[in-house]
Write a structure and sequence with these properties.
The chain is α+β, with helices and mostly antiparallel strands. The protein has 2 domains: 236 residues, HUPs (Rossmann fold, 3-Layer(aba) Sandwich); 249 residues, Alpha-Beta Complex (Nucleoside Triphosphate Pyrophosphohydrolase). The protein has 17 helices and 16 strands.
Length: 522
């Protein structure tokens, strides 16, 4: 849910912090008489004070009503307004063009000339005001919707020093304007560039609401989607500056690296997520019966968007300048759960294109095995152990039920065999219950641990230093989800453990010999 009050406060903190860090004084804003420049001016007045905001009205064959609205806004918010009429400058320039070419019938060039003249004027004013210790910079006034479809002029309204509404769609800008009490006459005025005599939506051929729906992945008819996609794709030249690079002309590795441009390729982010397994005793009603074992997974409840209030695996972003993947996993484990110094191994890299709604994020997952009864420190309050109550596999549709005694989570993951020779699978969740693709991570991890306990000694990470053979067998059975024959199990385990002189006496059971792992990993 969009919270305009919260965003206003965050924007103001952002502006204050930026100005403080960079020793800045004030802001110059082009005031068109429309809602975008009005909202930007109101935000800057709130953040910097009206004495540090200078509006500039730049009429150029413009509607008088827009100038009147600009004057009204400056009086309403108390900031100074400078008027620079560019009409004669614009006409003089076109007269020069006519002397050269014999014509001025260049509609697109003429329309774009106006914002370019305005840009030069704004920077002139900012420079003019920057005297002594005062430093003024130019604020941008474009919103997310028009930026997405490239509805701006290169070297014109796209040129500025900082932005405060560029991450908000038109409807979100209006909600921010309502919080700031922007006069309704301006806030709800039909968006127009003030240049062509047409509204923005007339020129674009689509509504701003449709653009917002497209950005946020909502349903649209195919014709509208294609229009918006075409606008976005055809304006890529406005978003990225192409530059020739001397790829084959370097004489040394050092020279190549000195000229290397990392922005040539699309970047992505890396995260590490951790699947933590534990096997522990179930509560029992009959003390004469052996403890049943239950497998548990540690989940964390998210306290922020995306997926706010959903359960997920502990995870976080990799710091590419300071961390290896394992370093990142250890840091995340400590920060998210308060756990450290436990067994970790890399599980798999999950790379679905839409696994994170924010951007392209690859997750390298790690698997951790612990005996939670042996923990010396408490887990964080937002973390909780979930017991695996049931696992059903019906023709490679795996359904798992988790419970922590309060929340019950049930999800299904489809396994698709992609390599018969290596028994390799792809995992696709049927419905989103956990955050991101963590349902798939859990099923993948379950497959991995079942395969590894057959061929490795990984299971001993789930056990205390001393244990009975019965305890080990029940852990095997819990993980494999099936009963094992005692003689067969003893043959499997005999070369992995060492008998001790310790005897365990447990209530109604006969005494049992305690064993320890032969490598004594504890």
């Amino acid at each position: 849910m969009f919270n305009a009050n919260e965003e206003v406060n965050k924007i103001c903190e952002f502006v204050k912090d930026y100005y403080k860090k960079n020793n800045l004084t004030g802001a110059v804003v082009g005031i068109s008489g429309g809602k975008d420049s009005a909202v930007v001016a109101a935000l800057l007045v709130k953040a910097l004070g009206p004495e540090n905001v200078v509006g500039v009205a730049l009429p150029c064959h413009s509607n008088d009503e827009d100038l009147n609205d600009a004057i009204m806004l400056s009086e309403y918010y108390g900031f100074k307004l400078i008027k620079i009429d560019l009409t004669s400058t614009y006409d003089s320039f076109l007269n020069e063009i006519k002397n050269i070419t014999g014509s001025t019938n260049y509609d697109n060039a003429n329309i774009n000339l106006k914002p370019r003249l305005r840009m030069s004027s704004l920077y002139y004013v900012a420079s003019m005001l920057s005297t002594g210790e005062k430093r003024f910079i130019v604020a941008g006034t474009s919103n997310k919707s028009e930026l997405f479809v490239g509805y701006f002029t290169k070297g014109g309204d796209s040129t500025h020093d900082f932005e405060v509404i560029s991450d908000f769609t038109v409807s979100e800008v209006i909600k921010i304007g309502e919080v700031l009490k922007v006069p309704e006459k301006v806030l709800y005025k039909a968006p127009s560039d003030g240049l062509s005599g047409k509204t923005d939506e007339d020129k674009l051929g689509v509504t701003y609401q449709a653009i917002e729906d497209y950005i946020y992945g909502k349903e649209l008819d195919s014709e509208t989607k294609e229009k918006i996609k075409r606008l976005h794709d055809n304006n890529q030249h406005k978003f990225n500056m192409p530059a020739y690079r001397r790829w084959l002309m370097y004489s040394s590795e050092e020279e190549f690296l000195a000229h290397y441009n990392p922005n040539k390729y699309e970047r992505l982010s890396m995260s590490t997520d951790i699947l933590i397994f534990s096997v522990s005793d179930k509560e029992r009603n009959n003390y004469r019966k052996n403890n049943e074992k239950v497998m548990s997974i540690l989940l964390v409840k998210r306290d922020n968007y995306p997926y706010k209030d959903r359960w997920c695996l502990p995870g976080g972003f990799l710091d590419p300048k300071k961390e290896t993947l394992l370093d990142s996993a250890k840091r995340v484990l400590k920060n998210e759960t308060n756990l450290e110094d436990i067994y970790l191994e890399q599980l798999y890299t999950f790379d679905c294109l839409n696994r994170d709604p924010r951007m392209r994020v690859l997750s390298t997952t790690f698997m951790a095995l612990i005996d939670k009864n042996e923990l010396l420190s408490m887990i964080n309050e937002k973390a909780s152990w979930f017991n695996i109550e049931s696992i059903d596999n019906n023709d490679n549709l795996v359904t798992i039920t988790l419970s922590n005694g309060i929340d019950n989570l049930k999800f299904s993951v489809r396994k698709t065999l992609i390599s018969k020779t290596t028994n390799n699978y792809e995992y696709h969740k049927e419905k989103s219950i956990l955050a991101f693709d963590h349902e798939s991570v859990i099923v993948c991890g379950m497959d991995r641990i079942r395969n590894k306990i057959r061929d490795t000694d990984i299971i001993f990470n789930l056990l205390p230093k001393y244990f009975t053979l019965g305890e080990v067998q029940r852990i095997y059975e819990t993980i494999l989800n099936k009963k094992l024959l005692d003689p067969a199990f003893r043959r499997i385990i005999k070369d992995k453990v060492i008998k001790t002189d310790i005897i365990k006496s447990d209530g109604g059971h006969r005494p049992s010999i305690m064993y320890k792992y032969k490598e004594d990993i504890k």
